[in-house]
Amino acid sequence: MPVTVVIGSQWGDEGKGKIVDLLSREIDVVARYQGGANAGHTIMWGDKTFVLHLVPSGIFHDGVKCVIGNGVVIDPGALLDEIGMIKRLGYDVDDRLFISHNAHLIMPYHKKVEEARERARDAGAIGTTGRGIGPAYVDKFARTGIRVVDLLDRDVLRKKLKVAIEEKNAILKGVYGADQLNVDAITEEYVEFDKLIDPFVTDTSQYLGQLLKGGAHVLAEGAQGSLLDVDFGTYPFVTSSHPTVGGCCTGLGIPPTEIKRVIGIVKAYSTRVGNGPFPTELDGETGEELRSKGGEFGATTGRPRRCGWLDLVALRYTSMINGFTDLAITKLDVLTGTPQIKACTSYDVAGKRTERFPSEVQTLEKVEPIYESFEGWGEDITGVTSFDDLPDCARTYLSAVSDYLDVPISTISTGPKRNQTILNAAPATVG
Ligand code: GDP
Ligand code: IMO
Ligand code: MG
Question: What gap in Å lies between CA 156 and CA 136, rounded to an integer?
Fold first, then answer.
């Protein structure tokens, strides 16, 4: 059986958690391949709401195994809190949750350095989640990071931490005038973490390889979104990993030839948390309305999300990078009651019309979106489960999205809960 990848097509928070949880009914393994506790994936059913930051969104399906791959940066404290929450809810994690021995750890100094750097950047701040993600990936690539496997040998851990903390203290004090960190206290804290996470640690690429050989169906769960990818996103206003499809191979040790399906998760409008260019952003009343109707507040930081119209130029670009085989459109219900819906189909760049997504942030900041308008609908579509039951205007909007991107829509989400979904929306295109 193949690998299916679920990828955010915009700036994150597209509803990946809901879709992964839903797909987990037919899946053997769900694996996270990048990012860390900067992610906030919401799952709802009945009157319950859960937000997962590190544990894959398949955990609430008893038979499903969950893997945190080598590409993820793990904050052990955040992970243990999450494991505690899952256990309290009555779900077993033993022999179900597997953590890569090669994954890098978030250390307290990563958060300190990030905080100091963001403060120093002032108006140019990225607006990170403050979870230490960037500095942890910097250490990984500088080859000074500390991995899960390093926790096993206390002497090695202490030596590595001493070198790392001395360097970070020099930076914190010399560059940012910030507080110092203590080697002994941090070593002790991480030795304690080791005792608790040790049962979950394994060579996850070997584990996944064996499962795939045995015919298992693996679902790779992307965090963040393609426009936050460190190479393909709106750099420098990005995260420090690869949410795009290549990240799945390097972050799990899965060969690309195993990937048979790449689902692009597309929110029916756009949102962005943090700073950086956002051509279709709506500053006024319509943006406010989308925020309040869509509950657009960060699942990790609680920050209000910036809202805007769908950007098809950006989506065609992320579809090209990822090779989406099909799309899951989420939060369509939020557009109900919007008299006129717009989607950006090209940009005006200094008087010239283009359908190319510019890679330079300076250009992207200046583009004027050119919109196509669609008539809205008034009927409440919350919980609709059949494509035929959608109002004509909603179907027209979806058809236009599918046609522009030349990718079929397989799934349409009409509410935050599992059952509020149209499955098998259309085998080819929606229209
Ligand atoms: P993720 O990071 O991509 O998993 O998305 P988040 O969980 O951060 O944000 C998505 C939000 O939208 C969550 O509060 C979900 O419960 C909610 N949501 C997901 N799908 C739908 C939908 O179709 N309609 C509505 N109204 N809410 C949805
Ligand atoms: P999920 O998986 C939305 C944003 C931050 C900031 C930038 C860099 O829930 O979709 P970082 O802390 O990663 O260094 O911050 O990326 N960001 C997200 N935005 N959803 C996320 O995750 C995000 N993870 C990071 O707001 O702009
Ligand atoms: Mg989120």
Answer: 19
What protein residues have CB closer than 5 angstroms to ion ligand 3? 13, 40, 299
Residues 19-46 pLDDT 10s: 999 999 999 999 999 999 999 999 998 8
Rounded to whole angstroms, the Cα distance separating 326 from 33 reads 20
- Span 237-277, pLDDT tens digits: 999 999 999 999 999 999 999 999 999 999 999 999 999 99
Q: Give the ligand with the smallest distance to the CA of 225.
A: 2
What pLDDT, on a 0 to 100 scale, did the predictor assign at position 299? Answer: 84
For the question of residue 41 being annotated catalytic, the response is: yes
CB 210 within 8 A of CB 21: no
3-class DSSP assignment, residue 372: strand
- Give dist(CA 423, CA 425) in Å, integer: 5
pLDDT by residue (tens digit) across 394-419? 999 999 999 999 999 999 999 999 99
Question: Which atom of ligand 2 lies nearest, measured to the CA of 114?
Answer: 14
Task: Give the pLDDT band (50/70/90) at residue 427.
Answer: very low
Active site residue 110: no
Q: Compute CA 378 distance to the chain's CA centroid, rounded to the nearest angstrom.
A: 31
pLDDT of residue 430: 45
Q: To 10 degrees, what angle do helices 108-121 and 154-174 make? A: 20
Domains of the chain: 3-100+202-263 (3.40.440.10), 104-197 (1.10.300.10), 265-423 (3.90.170.10)
Q: Tell me, in angstroms, the distance from the centre of ligand 1 to residue 392's CA.
A: 24
Lowest mean per-residue pLDDT among 178-182, 197-201, 248-252: 178-182
Rounded CA-CA distance 239/333 in Å is 29
**Ligand 3 centroid – CA 24 distance (Å):** 18
Closest ligand to C-alpha of residue 44 is: 1
In three-state secondary structure terms, 65 is strand
Dihedral angle over CA of 48, 266, 34, 317, nearest 10: -170
pTM for this entry: 0.97
Query: Do residues 417 and 45 lie in contact, with contact meaning Cβ atoms separated by under 8 Å?
Result: yes
Contact in structure between 428 and 403 (CB atoms under 8 Å): no
In Å, how far from its chain's centre is CA 75? 16
